[in-house]
Each structure stands twice: as structure tokens, then as C-alpha cells.
Amino acid sequence: MSISTRVEAWELARPFAITGYTFRHSDVLVASVEAAGFTGYGEGAGVYYLNDTVDRARAQIEAISGRFANPPSREELIELLPAGGARNAVDCALWDLESKSQGRPAWQIAGLPEPRPVLTTYTVSADEPQVMADRARDFTKARALKLKLTGTEDDAERVRAVRAARPDAWIAVDGNQGFNRASLDALMPALVDANVELLEQPFPRDRDADMDGLDSPIPLAADESIQDLDDLELLVGRVDIVNIKLDKCGGLTRGFAIAARARELGLETMVGCMIGTSLSVAPGLLLGQVCKVVDLDAPIHLARDRSPSVVYDEAGRVFSPPNVWGFPKTTMTPS
Average of pLDDT values for 111-137? Predict the structure, then answer.
């Protein structure tokens, strides 16, 4: 058994701006787990705001890679590595390896029905209102949009401009921790007028108490405030939906556990992603089969994706063909 890693840099088609941060490329870590003549692959990008870099993730994997004659189980991996990009890459590689070695697709191993294409949001980066409107109009396949906001006075005009450009679209907005109660109160009438249907992470992750008593007319979603399983109970009564990202929680195995516990607590679930390639989105699509909202559009923001790749269809849906990840006949090395 061997575990190997490589770091890749993927250029974005254009800069991608959120509150306090602009992405121009995406660094990802690809993990390969080889055993008994089969190789499984997984990709992790880490969590940029927690300094969970690909170099740090690579070091974490190298520290455990020589310990085993056989691949660890996915449950053992949770004890070996912390939540984050390293565990995500290896966990997804173990799912892929298991699929190939057992001759069963990952969806069967997960106990799911055969996956269906799912509607995904297309994310519009924060920019000048007209630029955002033009970008939303350019997303001709999109039936659902997510707008990145910044907590500034321009946000209301951004939302109005996009709604005018796309009166047909389901719209969510993402504050990426950029608001306080006063700035959100000022923006709320514009969100309601524009028929915004989801408000994601308006406040900083260490200010979850600011949601107490908010009584938002728009459903609230937690993103940065939900990193792993232990965060869920603190969000009950504060948000309506939790955004599960495999890079945050450390893989598909943990993602399924979070989704199950969220449902027990009366919370809806959403699956999101960091900026990565189809190799990171394909495992997320399994989780997306049991989530209310799917936000798995990362590859559309890249200058090019790896091949083979997930497919975004004309109905605004995304699906993963059998040659991408998690199928026993997948033999192509991701490139």
C-alpha cells in the first residue's frame, strides 16, 4: 500500500472576489492511494481562512503515509488526520479505491440510489453591479445563482442589478462573514424586494450570537460557522440550513455524518465546495443527492478543468459521468 501526493495550481478564468479576499488561481492537493493493483484518487483545496494550505496538507499526509501495510479504513482516517484538505483528499481517494477494488460504484457503497443530475447554483463573484449583472446574464445555463456580497453600500444595487438581469433565476446571496447587524438590517429590504431565497453566512464565524433574535424573513445558512460535526448543535435555532464542504469537514465520510446529524437536529443541508476541479466536485455530488441545496460550480470558474470532467447541462444541473471518480471502470489517471 502506498499514499502519494502532488500539488497542482489551476488558473481561474477571471479573478474571483469575496469579502476580503480575491482568488486568481486555485492550489489543490491530489492524493493517490494504491493497493492490490488499484489506485484511488482524491482532491483537497483546504480552507484558506484557516491557513489550511496545500503544503500543510501534504505534510500531514506524509506524516502518516508510512504507517500502514494496508489502507486505513475511512473511519480510522478520521482519527489519524484533522478535519481539512488533507483528510478530504485521502478520504475521497479511499472511496475511489474501494469502488475500484470492490467493483461497485461509490454510490452503492454509500447506500444511495443511482445518482441523478442535480440543480446547482452558479456563483457570481463580487464586483460592480453592472459587471455582476452581465456575468449573471452570461450564465445562460444557470437556473440558480449565488451572489457574493461584501457588506458595503453597493450590495443593494448589486442585488437589484442581477435580479433585473435574471428575473427567472432562484437567487441566494453570500456575505462571507462581511456583515454586522446594522449593515444587514440596511440591506434586508433590498433582498426581500429582489426575492432572494437564501442568505448565507452574513456574520463572522465567531459572532454566531449575532443571529439570535434576528427573525430573518429569508432563510439563513451557515458556512464558515459549520466546520465539523461538533459545530452543529450551536447552530440550532440560529440558522435554517448548514453548508457542508468536504474540504472543511475532511471528506465525504464525515460529510455524510454531518448531513445525517443535521437532519436529526431539524436543520436542512447544503453541499458546497472550495475552488477546485471536477475531481473535488464528483465526491460532493454524492452528498448532493441528499441535500436541499447544491452549490458545486467550482470548475466553471477555472480557465480549464481536468479531463475527464463533470458535466453542466443546459438545465443548470451537474452530474458526474462514470469515468471521473468513484466508479470501478475508472482507469484514467486524472490530469
Answer: 97
Q: Which of 91, 95, 82 is nearest to 50 (CA)?
A: 82
- Mean pLDDT of the residues in the chain: 95
Q: Is the pLDDT of residue 242 over 70?
A: yes
The tens digit of pLDDT for each residue in 197-208 reads: 999 999 999 999
In DSSP notation, 71-88 reads PPPHHHHHHHS-TTHHHH
My answer on whether 190 and 294 are in the same domain is: yes
Q: What is the CATH number of the domain that holds 153?
A: 3.20.20.120
Helices (H), 139-275: 155-165, 181-193, 232-235, 246-249, 252-264
Helical (H) or strand (E) element with 227: none
Grid look-up 472550495 returns 274
User: How many degrees, rounded to 5, is the angle at CA 201 between CA 232 and CA 206?
Assistant: 65
Q: Tell me how crowded residue 252 is: count the other CB atoms within 10 A of its CB.
A: 25
Cα separation, 125 vs 19, in Å, equals 10
Give the number of other Cβ atoms within 10 Å of residue 192's Cβ. 12
28 inside domain: yes
**Domain count along the chain:** 2
Range of the domain at 271: 118-319
The confidence band for 53, taking pLDDT boundaries of 50, 70 and 90, is very high
Q: Is residue 330 a part of any domain in this protein?
A: no
Reported pTM: 0.95
Q: Is the pLDDT of residue 333 over 60?
A: no
pLDDT (mean) for 309-334: 88
Helices (H), the chain: 54-64, 74-80, 85-102, 106-109, 129-138, 155-165, 181-193, 232-235, 246-249, 252-264, 278-288
Q: At what angle do helices 54-64 and 85-102 cross, to 10 degrees?
A: 60
The residues annotated with a catalytic role in the active site are 148, 245
One domain for residues 88 and 235: no
Instruction: Identify whether residues 129 and 215 lie together within a single domain.
Output: yes
Give the pLDDT band of residue 22 (cuts 50, 70, 90): confident
